[in-house]
Amino acid sequence: MAGLSIPSSSPSLPWPLPDPNPSPSSDDQDSILEHDQRPPEALLPAEEDDIQEPPSSPPPPLAVQNPNLTNPIDQPHPSLLHISFNQDHGCFAAGTDRGFRIYNCDPLREIFRRDFDGGSGGVESGGGGGGGIGTVEMLFRCNILALVGGGPAPQYPPTKVMIWDDHQSRCIGDLSFRSEVRAVRLRRDRIVVVLEQKIFVYNFVDLKLIHQIETVPNPKGLCVVSQAPGPMVLVCPGGQKGQVRVEHYGLKKTKFIMAHDSRIACFALTQDGRVLATASSKGTLVRVFNTVDGSLLQEVRRGADRAEIYSLAFSANTQWLAVSSDKGTVHVFSLKANTGITGNDKPHDASDSNQGSPVGSSLSFIKGVLPKYFHSEWSVAQFRLHEGSQYVVAFGHQKNTIVILGMDGSFYRCEYDPANGGEMTQLECHNFLKLEEAF
């Protein structure tokens, strides 16, 4: 990958000037829109095939240099505040107590970093300028990112979403709110901001508010959006415990799914928005749904003990589902959702927790006699990690591989056997915060 860039030939797009006396409407009291006075050169990202280095301008520096700093290898390593994959899982972003870093997954390498010097841009934006970045949301591989301050010394206020243009190495606009931002999701045409009990959807071109959704308390900022071309599908917690809400913007339809009896802890959506995987606070079962009609396609079991699910991820072909939890094991499950429901595999009502899974083990013929545990669908492959650490997982671009990121800075690449299953094979293990020392 050459870098994060948008062709310099992209046309300038409108960027509204701030209202000197903003007076938000009664139904938008949680949101105050603020923008930079100068319009960005190209806010809307280019198509993936068009992304390349501008031929007439030199590439941006790999880091914001501070002449008072010594060799980075001699500096203590920063504390991680955030890690997340980009939309195609080809890159990942890390927010630290000093700034943020962007990495390529395959091969693993640091693309660039931005270490703030304790005041660059933060004070002007109303923040403390301490350098901490608690959220970094990439948009595929382009130069536009969304940043939210975090940690004990945030670079920006945690109530603002800063739109960062890495071509200019500065923020070109911001969205300001009355409560802390829990998460940000980006598409090429939308910016989605998640607060504790409300979600705002903005048009990317002009940051016009086009929708807002009220949710149950959502401290984790749970929200996913489809990334395939076409109208957006958005999934968020519903209005009651265990419920998810699916917004089909193309169909102009809202679907509520009672996914679990306990509160929703994690979910994942396929790129086209058609299939949804959910996990509850119990963390024992993962359910897979059709987002259009809400039918339960499949149910798989992570384990018998309670666990906190950290991440769920679909493979690109929706044939596999990966799950990470605080139990220290990453599981890969085989899915049938990619082939649809046929024969006797009819949809089940997910709200009935006593129903059996759509596909069981060899004991399924006596599922009415034995406890549900014995006819559950179990994972095909597993990889053991340190129990208690927080990890997020995604499928790699190499066939039958997964990539695991840890909040301790760990990076694993593993291979699973789709035919025989069992323990995965570790291909790589690095600390991505110490790549200067490793390579």
Low-confidence stretches: 1-74, 339-370
Q: If strands are numbered along the chain, what order do they take across the biggest sheet?
A: 1-9-8-7-6
Total helical elements = 1
Our estimate of the beta-strand percent is 35-45%
Shape: globular
Could you tell me the number of beta strands? 30
Question: Would you give an account of this structure?
Answer:
The protein is mostly beta strands. Among the domains are: 79-181, Lipocalin; 259-439, Methylamine Dehydrogenase, Chain H. Helix content is 1%, strand content 38%. The chain is built from 1 helix and 30 strands. It has a 5-stranded antiparallel beta sheet, with no helix packed on it. Strands 22-23-24-25-29 form a 5-stranded mixed beta sheet, with no helix packed on it. It has a 4-stranded antiparallel beta sheet with strand order 2-3-4-5, with no helix packed on it. Strand 18 (264-269) and strand 19 form a beta hairpin. It is globular. Mean pLDDT is 76; it is low at 1-74 and 339-370. Its main location: membrane. It comes from Acorus gramineus (Dwarf sweet flag). Pfam families: PROPPIN. InterPro entries: PROPPIN (IPR048720), WD40/YVTN_repeat-like_dom_sf (IPR015943), WD40_repeat_dom_sf (IPR036322), WD40_rpt (IPR001680). It is found in: Preautophagosomal structure membrane.
